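Worked example 3 (structure in, sequence out).
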């Protein structure tokens, strides 16, 4: 089984993807871990695409991948079986991303091993350019339009789209899997 969990930042993609990978007994691949380097430097261009391609090839029998990263769609959706879209309400997603960011900043949690990248109150609330909360606020509607269109696109006919609208639906979905 090959699955891509998508949704707006703060929707719970990583948490759900880890749970799903454990349930399906396949590797969990975190796209942010592939992208972010030390000092909040992103991996750009072909190097990022190569990292994604290699991670998927290493887990050829099956995987659960979390993340949107539109430029990787041709790679990750080529063989994907399911795209699970966490489409929670705006205020629910805003609450989740704010709570998560504050908790990480308070605990000084390193987000990806050996990067030194940590959330901060300044970054979250006073630096629009680098704020995950601001990113959620500005990308929420755009992501909804994008995934609604992807579900209707005939080019994606090989993909089973699963749209989960609440944490309760997500829990029921996970519980329904063998």
């Amino acid at each position: 089984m090959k699955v891509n969990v998508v949704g707006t930042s703060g929707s719970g993609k990583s948490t759900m993807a880890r749970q799903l990978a454990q349930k399906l007994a396949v590797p969990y691949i975190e796209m942010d871990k592939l992208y972010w380097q030390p000092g909040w430097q992103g991996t750009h261009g072909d190097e990022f695409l190569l990292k994604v391609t290699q991670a998927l090839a290493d887990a050829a029998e099956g995987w659960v991948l979390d993340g949107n990263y539109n430029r990787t769609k041709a790679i990750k959706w080529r063989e994907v079986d399911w795209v699970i879209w966490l489409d929670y309400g705006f205020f629910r997603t805003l609450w989740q991303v704010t709570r998560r960011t504050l908790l990480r900043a308070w605990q000084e949690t390193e987000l990806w091993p050996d990067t030194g990248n940590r959330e901060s109150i300044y970054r979250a609330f006073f630096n629009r350019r680098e704020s995950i909360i601001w990113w959620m606020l500005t990308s929420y509607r755009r992501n909804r339009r994008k995934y609604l269109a992807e579900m209707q696109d005939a080019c994606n006919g090989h993909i089973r789209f699963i749209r989960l609208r609440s944490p309760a639906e997500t829990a029921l979905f996970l519980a329904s899997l063998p």
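Notes: Residues 86 and 140 are 12 Å apart (CA to CA). The mean pLDDT is 95.
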